[in-house]
Amino acid sequence: MKTRYALNYKGLVFKTEWVALPDIEAHCKKLGIKPTGKAAWAPESDYYTLPAIHDPSTGTYISDSLLIAKYLDETYPDTPRIFPNKAEVGLQLAFVDAFVACVAPAPALAFTVAMTRIDRRSEEYIRRTREKAFGATIEEMTPTGEKAQQEWEKLRKGLDKVAAWYAETDDKGPYILGDVVSWADFVVGGQIMMLKALWGENSEEWKRITAFNDGRWGALIESLAKYAS
């Protein structure tokens, strides 16, 4: 979602090729796309991830949404900048790290429902690799009962903190920089969109998210909707 936001924001024409989770490594190797790290379940093995882009104008293949964003700004400087001010890139990246820490409970809360949103091959792949890495089943890693309520409370408090950062520029616009969209907003919007896609627009979980912070998060993704197609 972050890369989709970035490409649309810059007005760059693109087409999407969907790749199933079990096929990502082979697909990347075939195209010469570099790994983005090491696999948690096999630290000696390279880990290949999407998104990745191929830019036919330069012949470049590149993966990792942050590296893609930097590449797009460098290669297409006459389009709107994802990082509006080069001097602020470090601050943007620090914000993203802080945001990810604030919403850390969210992925675990959605583990089980995520299995219903993917095909059978991908589910088998996730269970075989992630369950091995973490030493527990997806169901065991998904908090329930009182533990789930505790994780929801952590998530609410984390989003309260992020909302306070956003509120500093509310008089200028809905984004972290006010009226100028930037990488930080794409990261936040992408995370919120992931939760919407997993839980579903009519779910109690999504209604709960959109009720936090006076509807700020639903409003943010609405403001980014023009870059989401």
TrEMBL record:
Residue stretches making up the GST N-terminal domain: 1-80
Q: Name one Pfam family in it.
A: GST_N_2
In terms of superkingdom, the source organism counts as Eukaryota
The protein in question is named: GST N-terminal domain-containing protein
Name the species this protein comes from. Agrocybe pediades
